[in-house]
Design a protein that fits this description.
Helices cover 69% and strands 1% of the residues. The protein is mostly helical and 461 residues long. It is globular and about 65 Å long.
């Protein structure tokens, strides 16, 4: 029996369960109080309903559409009293709107019209979910307590899926995850870890939850999430050692101790993985450079990805100027599968073919789409650095800690197609925490400092 047969069989077995869970969490979003509706939305992201025999290029998954657009829109309307929310149209909002509009226009010359329409829905879903979490942070509906509840409920779902039911990921790659992809689940855990590490409070189960996040990422066995976890812990150590200051930026002399600590942890982790989890995908990454894993091509799907990158760059380099500027259309990356023979692409997802969002933007949306995407990334990175380093915002430091993981995901995967999955939810939680709660915390600190100085003056007088 092939790997595909094992995976298809596992998906058929869990389909009734995922469909039931989907309806439970969907009803929670629709009818529970806003706080618990938000928790239902987060837990629903753990449930990826895959209909047996579903073909993404030629079919519409209505459950995915409900998760991506309908439920977030309903929750947004509930938070605003069923009124149109007031939008502050800064540069990020305008850049995202421009990218979404151009993606819609470029669908006209795409060979995969249906997948192009889906991509427009994904981009709109990112925007709607951002508004939902932004309002939730501002109104304090979303806090550390709710995050911890979402974390432990998600871990419970993962234990049931992996160790009781035997998840598709466990059957094929021995990875720990809920009813979704292991990479997506691991990024969600890393995002919760970032939020708790740089939180302003210390709710119940805080320390245990931090350990659970780290253990969950390790058991999930995703290489991208592991590298992101290491970079997050490094930024946290820099913050704890005050290596990042508001006046001088990064003090490089203070970087050495955190680096040494992280190096020792890495060496211990590598030895532990080789002894306790020799079949893990993480151990495969740890063995890079050894006799068993001599080059990057020997690691899992890296060879496939490198071949895809080479094909994409070769195709782009031979284009005329108009095609280079405007691209070949939204979701047109699907033609790169199997040498561009579209009859073999039916079982593939054109929105998840080029495992690099930068190359994908260049191929499908041309220099216009790539320019919009890069401008947005540079703006968000610069803004988060300014808030975290110059203004001392603890929430913004969570964004800085997750930036390496976000960039790695953009280089190594297709996160734009997953706004309503655990990966997208986790990243949006971090971004909205940094840019919504961050300024609020800074204002509160400024007011507290002003109040203390006023008290000192009154005492002196």
């Amino acid at each position: 029996m092939t790997t595909n047969d094992l995976l298809a069989g596992a998906l058929r077995e869990v389909y009734p369960i995922t469909l039931t869970l989907f309806w439970i969490f969907a009803l929670g979003v629709l009818f529970l109080r806003p706080r618990w509706a938000l928790l239902s939305l987060l837990l629903g992201a753990n449930v990826n309903v895959i209909t047996p025999g579903f073909l993404s290029a030629t079919s519409v998954g209505w459950q995915n559409g409900v998760q991506t657009l309908v439920l977030p829109t309903v929750l947004l309307l509930r938070l605003t009293g069923f009124k149109v929310p007031r939008l502050r149209l800064g540069f990020p909002a305008m850049a995202w709107a421009a990218l979404t509009l151009y993606a819609a226009v470029s669908t006209l010359w795409s060979p995969f019209k249906l997948s192009g329409v889906k991509m427009i829905g994904f981009l709109a879903g990112w925007f709607i979910l951002y508004l939902v979490f932004h309002l939730a942070w501002e109104r304090r509906i979303l806090d550390e307590g709710l995050l911890i509840a979402a974390l432990w409920c998600s871990l419970g779902l993962a234990c049931i899926q992996t160790y009781v039911l035997g998840s598709p990921e466990q059957v094929v790659t021995h990875q720990f995850t809920s009813f979704t992809a292991a990479e997506s689940f691991a990024i969600f855990l890393s995002s919760i870890l970032a939020l708790l590490l740089f939180s302003t409070g210390r709710p119940w189960l805080h320390g245990v939850s931090l350990a659970a996040c780290v253990l969950g990422v390790i058991l999930a066995g995703d290489r991208t999430a592991l590298i992101g976890l290491a970079s997050l812990l490094f930024v946290w150590l820099l913050h704890r050692k005050k290596a990042i200051g508001t006046r001088y930026g990064v003090r490089f002399a203070a970087v050495v101790p955190p680096f040494v600590v992280l190096l020792l942890l890495f060496l211990g982790f590598r030895a532990g993985m080789a002894w306790g989890m020799p079949e893990s995908r993480l151990n495969e990454l740890m063995q890079l450079g050894s006799n068993s894993v001599a080059t990057l091509q020997d690691i899992g799907t890296v060879a496939f990805r490198l071949d895809m990158y080479e094909s994409t760059l070769s195709e782009v380099s031979g284009r005329a100027l108009p095609a280079l500027v405007f691209g070949s259309g939204t979701a047109s990356g699907g033609t790169l599968s199997f040498g561009g023979q579209e009859q073999y692409v039916i079982g593939m997802d054109p929105n998840r073919t080029i495992h690099d969002e930068f190359l994908r933007a260049l191929y499908e949306w041309g220099l216009i789409g790539l320019g919009l995407g890069l401008a947005l990334i540079f703006h968000l990175a610069g803004r988060s650095w300014h808030l975290a380093v110059r203004e001392g915002s603890l929430p913004a430091m969570a964004v800085v800690g997750m930036l390496p993981a976000m960039l790695l995901l953009l280089v190594d995967g297709n996160p734009l197609s997953s706004p309503a999955e655990t990966m997208g939810m986790g990243l949006l939680l971090v971004l909205t925490y940094g840019f919504s709660a961050g300024p609020q915390v800074a204002k509160m600190r400024a007011r507290a400092t002003l109040a203390k100085s006023s008290q000192k003056r009154s005492v002196a007088e």
